[in-house]
Design brief:
About 75% of the residues lie in helices and about 0% in strands. The chain is mainly alpha-helical. Keywords: Antibiotic resistance, Cell membrane, Cell shape, Cell wall biogenesis/degradation, Hydrolase, Membrane, Peptidoglycan synthesis, Transmembrane, Transmembrane helix.
Length: about 270
């Protein structure tokens, strides 16, 4: 893997991880268009560690508070009745589906799921679903009112992102809006929900990333650092954006990119594999 490829993919990862446009899909597309190859699911998963470190740094106080509240809840009945204790458990519960499905379908995720035909279709289909959720979701429920049922549903929505083109944040935002959550609430929960699953995926696939003609250890570290810096800036921007704006701009972008990708594949401009 060349240094240019490492830098470009690190930038793409940082820019797209938190937007509902599919970072894994963009990594797959960018790598094929500019470098004529697939960087592999392992490279994508490990580079996401950089963006999740950005989440930990950005939300350090919130995360520490949830963690300590969760621990205190084991011995204090009063703490177990708080919204923060329940939210901490919901993050844990919501992380289970992607962990289980990621292990069960590891081979398919690393092979057939990376076809650009599938990426294009998922970009369009889940773009339309995101638009419908924005249009018809009540958006009245704050983050404190997320239920266990909501947490499980959002966990399975996040797990759909194992297919490039779906988008982890896009899946959770779509499901969250459909469940009546406000945009700021679901985006914030989506950030928290991603931490255990993305770190788990990165560590799980770390041995695979250096196989074959993959990156060196130094190159992988640089990609992670780039993703961290860019991802941190995107977090701050996205939280401000969703306060006063709809997600229709992302819907339009997803559909346009999906259609353009289908056209490029149809005329043989790029290879699907």
């Amino acid at each position: 893997m060349s240094w240019l490829e490492v830098i470009v993919l690190g930038l793409v990862q940082g820019l797209t991880e938190f937007l509902p446009v599919s970072s894994s899909g963009h990594m797959r597309i960018a790598s094929e268009v500019f470098f004529g190859r697939d960087p592999g699911a392992a490279f994508t998963a490990v580079s996401q560690i950089g963006t999740e470190v950005a989440v930990i740094v950005y939300f350090a106080k919130d995360i520490w508070h949830l963690f300590t509240t969760w621990l205190r809840g084991f011995r204090d009945a009063e703490v177990r009745r708080t919204d923060d204790y329940r939210l901490a458990w919901l993050v844990i519960i919501g992380s289970i589906p992607i962990a289980v499905l990621g292990v069960l379908f590891k081979t398919q995720i690393e092979t057939v799921a990376r076809s650009l035909w599938l990426v294009a279709v998922m970009l369009i289909v889940f773009g339309v679903l995101l638009g419908l959720a924005e249009r018809y979701g009540r958006q009245t429920k704050p983050i404190e009112r997320i239920t266990v049922r909501d947490g499980i549903a959002l966990g399975f929505a996040q797990a759909m992102a194992l297919i490039p083109g779906v988008s982890r944040s896009g899946g959770t935002i779509t499901a969250g809006l459909a469940l009546g959550l406000t945009r700021p609430a679901i985006v914030r929960y989506s950030f928290l929900l991603a931490i255990p699953s993305v770190f788990g995926a990165g560590l799980f696939t770390l041995p695979d990333v250096f196989a074959g003609d993959g990156p060196s250890g130094v190159q992988m570290l640089v990609a992670v650092l780039i993703a961290f810096v860019v991802g941190y800036a995107v977090i701050a921007w996205l939280l401000r954006f969703v306060q006063n704006n709809t997600v229709y701009v992302f819907v339009a972008y997803r559909i346009a990119l999906g259609v353009a990708l289908l056209a490029a594949l149809s005329i043989g401009a790029i290879s699907a594999t």
